[in-house]
Amino acid sequence: MSSRSPAKTPSRIPVSPVASEEEREQALRDYKVTIEYKHLKSHAPGGVYLIPSMKDLRHFYGIIFVRRGPYTNGIFKFQLRLPARYNDVNMWPQITFSSKVYNPYVDAGTGILDIRSAYPNWDPSRHYLVTVLTYLKKIFYSKNFADAKANPEARELAKKNPEAYRKKVDSCVRGSQKQVFVNEPGTTVKFTEEQVSHRVLRDLLKHHIRHENQVSKNAVLAQIDKARKV
């Protein structure tokens, strides 16, 4: 009786654990983005806050609180997006305001901040997230708009009729304040209107924690528990 050898099963094609050159380069870009964001914790311009999206490493939600100048008390929300090849030459970030911003450096139709005019050549060895956020803050304090291209109508109005321009800016600031509690879907920068419990907690903290040496985790939690019971 002849014996038959078992049929051979085709072996799997070995997959190299070594990533391709393109994958390694992309991983390095991703790593650089995280390093830049970490750098912002101690170097972000005052009044500007940026929080990553929950779904995309290159998508951020931000807000700027303007403390002086024509836009004083303005609260402007924005989104910052980075192209997939960010950290390559001439891969500019994009900032789009969610709040309506009347400013010569912001496109009136799209809300996009004109970054390319300020940085015609984006050099990743010199330009970073903090660079573009510093520029974002600067446009709210600028007094000379000669180089502004995004909104020519606003630029000319600021030059020829400063009073009318100021009225539009004031309206823009008031609008930003009214919209502060309107949260975009998916945003990581959320504001909620003050509830009774918030006011109670604030009053309790003022009454029971009057000095810095009284501040502790347990002391604060105790007041939160009291506020919840109101």
TrEMBL record:
Cited InterPro entries: Ub_conjugating_enzyme (IPR050113), UBC (IPR000608), UBQ-conjugating_enzyme/RWD (IPR016135)
Membrane-spanning residues: none
Pfam families, per database record: UQ_con
Protein name: UBC core domain-containing protein
Domain of life assignment: Eukaryota
Chain ranges of the UBC core domain: 28-178
Chain residue ranges for the region called Disordered: 1-21
